[in-house]
Amino acid sequence: MNDDKRIVPWVDDSEFSDVARNVSSCETYKLRLAWETIKIWLCRMPVSKIPRSIICTYELLNAYFENSSQSMALALMRFVSLLSSESQDRERPNFALPILSLARVAGLPSWLADLRNDIAHGIIPSTDTLESAFRWSLKYLSEFWASNVNYNEEQFIELDGLLKCQSLALTKYVENLLQEEKTTQLDVKEVFRNRSTYACFPLIVNTICSYGCAMFVGGSPPCNIVQDQAIKLKPLFSTMLYHKLVGELVLQFILGLRDDHSVDDDIRLEWCIAWIKAIKCRGSEKSILRDYVDGLSLDWRKALNHILKHMCNKYRDLFMELLIIRDPPIPQDKFEVIMSHIDVFCGFDVPNTHELQTQPAMPRQVDNIKEFLHMTQRADAKSVKIKENKDNVKFKIRCSRFLYTLVVVEKEKVGKIKRSLPPSINT
After folding, report:
1. Fewer beta carbons within 10 Å, N or C terminal of the chain?
2. DSSP string spanning 252-305?
3. Is the Phosphoprotein keyword given for this protein (predicted)?
């Protein structure tokens, strides 16, 4: 299958097919629909990037709806000039041939070439002649539209067959990994090189979660299931990391959440939490998935939007963690406002402003030094307490609602953290 990529102004194959069907119709309202759609396409991309046949279709329809002989004459002249010279402009741009010769090569009749020359010399043909030329030109262009629709259909049939083969290979590979059977990565690596890879991500996630459901029925808790599966799926994650596809996999786990109170949803949620924890604890040894999140690029907007659409109590903490690790980070004051709204939506008791000022700060663990130092920059950060124990050193900073704690095991990092504290912070 041809793996070339090209940016086009139409949304999908269906939109292109609709325009092609309307162009080949003789009904005025369908021609108007085609004209309006192509007009939108011309706003999306430069004219030089759009095929000439589409440009000619638009100009002919535009002249037709203007109901002007002069506009139709100019549109027909442009039609003959653009289509007859297309091959010459592409192959020999500095070499000019007579328009009659070029028109013959392009499959245009000689009378249309003569009509074009008459218009170019200021002679406007009769209305009947222009009408006949318009109908013939539109029929000629319909062949362009029909041939491209057929080509797209052939490509989709080929792509469908390819996806089925890849789906079988991926399913078998993931199943073998989860069952700890012998596997080969040759076929799977080829799948991840192909542009159809993204269509296979839901299949990978569904296979992983279905096996997780079977283990859950056997009595294992979701966190242990994810831990066990993550160990078995290391070869898959390593391959996806190499092709920079881990972010898309994480997104598919999130997009699969539906709050349908099923075991499958619980397994997906546990996987989401595990991935977010790995991103949050990047570089530490607290997550089994930490080796696969380096350079990870996640579509935060799509992930947060999906969770908001299906927000419930059990997704609240996942949403909060996504906000915390979002890049670029959200200012703390906005973060607290967002979470207060989420808490209200989920039915949690939200204290008023007076209660916030009088109640003791709630403890919260910070796993990242950079995140802790970011907390010290906050306007409501007043003081830092440092407690040195035998095995570690604890840094505690009190903000408006929370008491953030960072536990440092490496002694050499303690001095660096102390030197990085703002002068305005009391210790």
Report:
1. C
2. HHHHT------HHHHHHHHHHHHHHHHHHTTTSSS-TTGGG-TT----HHHHHH
3. no
Q: What is the distance between the alpha carbons of residues 237 and 185, in angstroms, rounded to a whole number?
A: 12
Would you state the structure tokens that stand for residue 191, as one six-digit string? 């799948």
| Rounded Cα distance, 79 and 102, in Å | 13
pTM (two decimals):
0.58
Determine how many CB atoms are found less than 10 A away from the CB of residue 155: 13
Sheet bearing 384-388, strands edge to edge: 362-366, 402-408, 393-398, 384-388
3-class SS of residue 36: helix
Per-residue model confidence as pLDDT tens digits over 345-392: 887 755 554 444 444 545 667 777 877 787 777 767 777 888 888 888
* Three-class secondary structure of residue 388 per DSSP: strand
Distance CA 160, CA 166 (A): 10
Quick check: 399 and 377 in contact, CB under 8 A? no
- To 10 degrees, what angle do helices 222-232 and 263-280 make? 60
